[in-house]
Design brief:
The complex is a heterodimer.
Chain A lengths: L1 E2 L7 E2 L18 H6 L4 H7 L3 H10 L12 H5 L10 E6 L9 H7 L1 H15 L3 E6 L4 H16 L15 E6 L9 H8 L24 E5 H5 L1 H13 L9 E8 L5 E6 L5 H6 L13 E5 L19 H6 L8 E6 L4 H15 L5 H18 L5 H14 L29 H15 L1 H13 L7
Parallel strand pairs in A: 3-4, 3-6, 4-5, 7-10
Antiparallel strand pairs in A: 1-2, 7-8, 9-10
Chain B lengths: L5 H11 L9 H12 L4 H11 L3 H8 L13 E6 L2 H5 L2 H12 L12 E6 L11 E3 L2 E3 L4 H12 L38 H6 L1
Parallel strand pairs in B: 1-2
Antiparallel strand pairs in B: 1-3, 3-4
Classes of the chains: A alpha/beta, B alpha+beta.
The complex binds flavin mononucleotide (FMN), iron/sulfur cluster (SF4) and FE2/S2 (inorganic) cluster.
């Protein structure tokens, strides 16, 4: 395994590389290096065929969305109403889900790959203009992508009559300004329209029908688009030869928390197990200090937690979904035996409470309630009824059975993701997910904090 | 005067020109204005409203939604320490406490010399490199308490000025679309089939 100082966190190994192959070069972000390593060959291959045939390639390769929901990109592109133009591409570079670290690397280390991916998407799906929305706090990504765009325009890869063809499209670099919820695709669109980043009411479920300026709009994640140059250069067969039938290709996964060697890995999709990732020598090498594993979050802060029982599940969307959680944004957070579980749950819940846009009462009020109750439990001021109150507030955000691998412990059947919810977007349920997991799996830790307090004799006369 | 200066006004027009609907430039222009003045002023929001064709209240409505916009002056260096889960698990909270102690301020506060503003923030996409902080949105990884002390010393002494511009400057390199290479905006009101799609039909 190899690391590079200019790609902090990334760990290369003896594995196929679709999106991280250039990270080994310090100048991987320059046009010169890009062109020397197969850059813009995918675009050339695409432009040599009709748009529909490129779209077929992406459908055939089942390129799954890497932003969270895992929806196939080719299918999504097909959801635009026939003949309705203009259509736009909005690139989701807002990466801010706790634990998630991959899109920033892709933007900083290989911006041309992303630009090429955007161009291939625009060509295939008939998208007339592209907006590359980068999270505001990523100053270096802005500089790298900005410079790469300037190089690409000057060299004729972006803009008018690309590579001398009829294909013309502008890519505008857009700045975010700090708001997690803007990562939700309809909020992203609102934000790009210059408004507050509040998610839109559904239906319509897909901006592909009504999106930016009311027009059909494709929103895709950075990693999703970064896959396209390789796919077009090497073909569908080469792409689907990696990974499994339902989850072809590779995936970038960030493993953080209490492992010996946290890192970002490009793994073969669908086959690598959580045990490989946490304990494998080519990955994280086990739990730090030889401690035991207590629990892990398999797919970003909003994913229901797993315990050592689920270690042998492969990193595959359907299987993890059936086990009551999700792969989400490819972020695994590992908690060892020393972890204070109520505090960890508080850290996650506070995030979602803090990031609520405030439109829906269950999220705005419920999230804050959950945070306050957890806070007082962690501070030693909780009461036994607080545990019921947490569940009561939580089920007002996500009514009914809550999907969880360990739901049977509460006497419930495990039901797959997604949740039932009373809110417009998933931020509300996400505030409850960690509480539900923590309380289901480690109730005694909450009780201990409460018992401690009630057992302290009340002193009088101070 | 906190309206955009002549050079920035040109830049503002260039940015607006990239969008089919001017109002989309609101956030980039707020950044530009914050870069010039260090924070977002009322005058600036009034001017942005004129530029993107909406009301000043709408600009404020947007600006106030986003954490990066400040409405009063802050320190030259905005030190943001991550307290989300991955950092929390390996000492993020303790790093915040240490910073409070070293700088003598609480999160949200600014040191008396106007150099540092401290903030406890949420995940900034470097979770495997925890605990993490950013100074003016430039990352620092696996930060020990000693690293933190050295960082503050270096910033104070101006040793990192080349690497870390003052608060407000987002990106030192900007996109410029050359006029002769631009494909041009595509307005939502022009229902034209793209040329390369027509060719396919
Ligand atoms: C609260 C919330 C936050 C999200 N944040 C992001 C994000 O930061 N980046 C991202 O690509 N997708 C994010 N998503 C998912 C997007 O809504 C959308 O599904 C995705 O960008 C589509 O791209 P894909 O199909 O290529 O995965 C978020 C979703 C929700 C509900
Ligand atoms: S669930 Fe929360 S973040 Fe999502 S729209 Fe409702 S209030 Fe906003
Ligand atoms: S949790 Fe701190 S950078 Fe992600």
């Amino acid at each position: 395994m190899t690391t590079y100082p200019w790609a902090a966190g990334y760990v290369a190994g003896d594995r196929p590389q679709i999106v991280t192959a250039r990270f080994q070069y310090e100048d991987s972000h320059t046009l010169e290096r890009y062109l020397a390593t197969g850059g813009y060959q995918g675009l050339r291959a695409a432009l040599a065929k009709p748009a529909a045939s490129v779209h077929d390639d992406v459908k055939g390769a089942t390129v799954l969305g890497r932003g969270g929901a895992g929806f196939p990109a080719g299918t999504k592109w097909g959801l635009t109403p026939a003949g309705k133009f203009p259509r736009y591409l909005v690139v989701n570079g807002d990466e801010s889900e706790p634990g998630t670290y991959k899109d920033r690397l892709l933007m900083e280390c290989d911006p041309h790959q992303l630009i090429e991916g955007c161009l291939i998407a625009c060509y295939a799906a008939g998208l007339s203009q592209c907006f590359l929305y980068i999270r505001g706090e990523m100053a270096v990504a802005h500089e790298r992508v900005g410079r790469a765009l300037n190089e690409a325009y000057a060299a004729g890869y972006v803009g008018k009559n690309i590579l001398g063809t009829k294909f013309s499209v502008d890519i505008a670099l857009h700045w975010g300004a700090g708001a997690y919820v803007v990562g939700e695709e309809t909020a992203l669109i609102e934000s790009l329209e210059g408004k507050r980043g509040e998610p839109r009411l559904k239906p319509p479920y897909f901006p592909a029908a009504i999106g930016l300026y009311g027009q059909p709009t494709i929103v895709n994640n950075v990693e999703t688009l970064a896959n396209l140059p390789w796919l077009l250069r090497n073909g569908v067969e080469a792409y689907t030869a990696i990974g499994t039938q339902t989850s072809p290709g590779t995936r970038m996964v960030a493993v953080s928390g209490h492992v010996k060697r946290p890192g970002v890995f490009e793994i073969i999709n669908g086959t690598t197990t959580f045990r490989d990732l946490l304990y494998g020598e080519e990955f994280c090498g086990g739990i730090r200090n030889g401690n035991d594993l207590k629990a892990f979050v398999p797919g970003g802060g909003s994913a229901p937690w797993f315990t050592p029982e689920q270690l042998d599940l492969p990193f595959e969307g359907r299987l993890v979904g059936a086990a009551g959680s999700m792969l989400g944004s490819g972020a695994i957070m590992v908690m060892d035996s020393t972890t204070d579980i109520p505090k960890a749950a508080l850290s996650l819940t506070r995030f979602y409470a803090h990031e609520s846009c405030g439109q829906c009462t269950p999220c705005r009020e419920g999230g804050t309630w959950l945070e306050r109750i957890l806070s007082r439990i962690c501070d030693g001021h909780g009461t036994t009824s607080d545990l019921d109150l947490l569940i009561e507030v939580g089920t007002s955000i996500c009514p009914g059975d809550f999907p969880h691998a360990s739901s049977t412990k509460l006497g419930l059947e495990a039901t797959p993701f997604p949740y039932k919810m009373t809110t417009i977007c998933f931020v509300g349920p996400s505030a409850y997910a960690p509480v539900h997991s923590a309380l289901t799996l480690f109730r005694e830790e909450f009780e201990a904090k409460i018992v401690k307090r009630t057992s302290i004799p009340v002193t009088v006369g101070h | 005067m906190s309206r955009l200066n002549a050079a920035n006004l040109d830049l503002a027009q260039e940015i607006i020109g990239r969008y089919p609907v001017a109002r989309s430039a609101t956030i980039p222009l707020l950044h530009l204005s914050q870069e010039q003045n260090g924070y977002v002023t009322r005058d600036a929001m009034q001017q942005i409203a004129e530029l993107v064709d909406c009301t000043a209240a709408e600009v404020y409505g947007t600006a106030s939604f986003y954490e990066m916009f400040k409405f009063e002056p802050i320190g030259k260096f905005c030190v943001n320490i991550c307290r989300s889960i991955s950092c929390h698990l390996v000492g993020g909270d303790e790093l915040v406490e240490h910073a409070e102690h070293v700088l003598g301020i609480k999160p949200g506060g600014t040191t008396a010399d106007g150099l540092f503003t401290l903030e406890a923030v949420e995940c900034m996409a470097a979770c495997t490199e925890a605990p993490t902080l950013q100074v003016n949105y430039r990352h620092r990884f696996r930060v020990t308490h000693e690293d933190f002390d050295r960082l503050i010393d270096d910033l104070r002494a101006g040793r990192l000025d080349g690497e870390i511009p003052p608060h407000g400057t987002l990106a030192r390199e900007r996109q410029h679309i050359p006029a002769d290479r631009a494909a041009g905006n595509v307005s939502p009101d022009t229902p034209i089939t793209p040329a390369w799609m027509e060719a396919a039909q």
